Amino acid sequence: MLIKQGPLLNNIQYPEDLRKLKPEQLHEVAEELRQYIIDMVSVHGGHFGASLGVVELTVALHYVFNTPDDQLIWDVGHQAYGHKILTGRKDNFYSNRIYGGISGFPKRKESEYDAFGVGHSSTSISAALGMAMGSMHNNEPNRQHIAVIGDGALTAGLAFEGMNHAGSIKDANILIILNDNCMAIDPNVGALKEYLTDITTSPTYNKVKDDIWNLLGKMSRFGKSARDIVGKVENAMKGALLSQSNFFEALNLRYFGPIDGHDIDHLTEVLKDLKDIPGPKILHCLTVKGKGYGPAEVDQTKWHAPGLFDKVTGEIQKKVNDKPVAPKFQDVFGHTIVELAEKNKNIVGITPAMPSGSSLNIMMKAMPDRAFDVGIAEQHAVTLSAGMATRGLAVYCNIYSTFMQRAYDQVIHDVCLQELPVIFCLDRAGFAGADGPTHHGAYDIAYMRCIPNMIVASPINEEELRNMMFLAQSDEVQTGKQAFTIRYPRGEGVMPDWRKPFSKITIGKGQKLKDGEDLAILSFGPIGNQATLAIKDLEKEGISTAHYDMRFAKPLDEQMLHEVFRKFDKIITLEDGCLQGGIGSAVLEFMVDHGYTAQLKRLGMPDRLVEHGEQYQLYAECGYDAAGIFKTAKSLTKKELTVKY
Ligand SMILES: Cc1ncc(C[n+]2csc(CCOP(=O)(O)OP(=O)(O)O)c2C)c(N)n1
Ligand SMILES: CC(=O)[C@@H](O)[C@H](O)COP(=O)(O)O
Ligand SMILES: [Mg+2]
Prior knowledge:
By secondary structure, this protein is an alpha/beta fold. The chain has 28 helices and 17 strands. Strand 16, helix 26 and strand 17 (599-605) form a beta-alpha-beta unit. The longest helix has 19 residues, at 26-44. Residues 150-152, 181, 183-184, 188 line the site of magnesium ion. Belongs to the transketolase family. DXPS subfamily.
């Protein structure tokens, strides 16, 4: 579909085109850009509200700063659609997040305007500081380094670490822009949020700040000593006027704002002034997530990434499916934890900033004093869980597989070394889909499997997820010394009728799903359903295939593996995770350790970055969709292909 562009946007391919415009034309550019984002996302999908909220900021930044020489770093990057459109990617923006198309996040190899690759949050301050220090080293005193970070991203320890360091490098030419919209994906949480509201709403502070700002603007023209004097007065007054002393100033970051992040005239003026103020500084901008699209301003969580929608009615498109609908794994988690918690008073739930993504919001609503959103703070979430576990709580700590990478030391040091039975539910394990390599849950089988005192499980379907969650909170696990990881993917399972009574699974026991004679497929997790499909076609070809669902990557079901290796000399392992160190590696280790030999083919993610696309496209690319499994089985058994894919 051809998306119309406004007349000004039509003439902009790069920021240099934008910079040719008069300041009074920027309003119009911003409106056209906003409209273009609405049009594009409504028909092609992607993140939405965050980009709408920074339209004015995006235009002003590229207008005032000399990008790409000046380094502009977007934190997370889900809000950078306007930036992408203004920096050479307008004409192929239709391919955003689509297989083979441009990435939904800034990416260094995609554009020189993408100063830093992102996807995970809270990296911008450290990266910008690193660049600023690099520029100091290279004797480039005029280069600017701008980190745009949201109030949600600012809750992470990494952001605090960056600010702590930045405040001590007084010559670092770094501007932190705090894009404060009081939202993460869900409403932002924590004491910092309260603090930002305090600064934002103090009327006396705001009046004096505006006066100081004007004075500062005038004095800055008279050189450094005049600026220093104004700066000192300003700091003293800010400190006196705020109910608490200014947090940022206390870290030696000069604090400016708060200002209206949608007032493009003021924004442009302020950014110009800040260009002349050396050293580390922070500009606090107030914005509205979803700005300019009514429904997105009202329900900001729903419109964070709404999927396709009718831009006129605001109706979000539902998936058309003629089959009965299977639930998302995340919803099975959300309902099951409540069901279990109703019976077991020790159960609590933790999420670092993903209440709706993990569906822990179901428990947060039903049992607000037993389910907690701790902000974007994966490390804290894990150690908090560990602390709770020492007091006898059965903690379900739900973290996306990719974000758990942040908390690896905490898993080892604070949980496993301390022999605490924390339950980790790793959502989005396996290919995440359109978010791409920053978000694929590729590594968790490998990184969890190698830690002592860790059980690693994955359900083939919804019923199994429930049973694994049931097992994890049982006395058998909770009085033991081992943590319990359950990994499951993004999206739906296969069982519309999923709410079955709990039944007991034994730790380290797999299950034989089907007998066979010619070869065996050992699968781990829901990707096993692709094997089930492939096996049907293999049977048609006369290839009798056994299917074993491993259930546990650790401990392995050794009895089952002995049975497999005694009976079969052709074996395929299948996992939705990296091949290096995954379940295939575990089976190989078992084979070698026990002196078996077999022709063993491992299917899973290869040792390279796999880009974005629909999950089924990525499985196919890596040869582990049903067709790929079929072909591998065929080539192992060396029979001719007759079923065509
Ligand atoms: C380490 C990490 N944890 C969680 C996420 C998921 N996530 C993406 S955006 C987001 C909210 C960010 O809030 P904020 O920085 O305020 O940006 P806004 O969407 O409000 O513009 C979260 C939690 C992530 N990308 N990275
Ligand atoms: C930018 C980011 O990290 C999140 O918005 C992420 O895209 C959410 O992914 P899900 O849609 O799988 O919850
Ligand atoms: Mg925010």
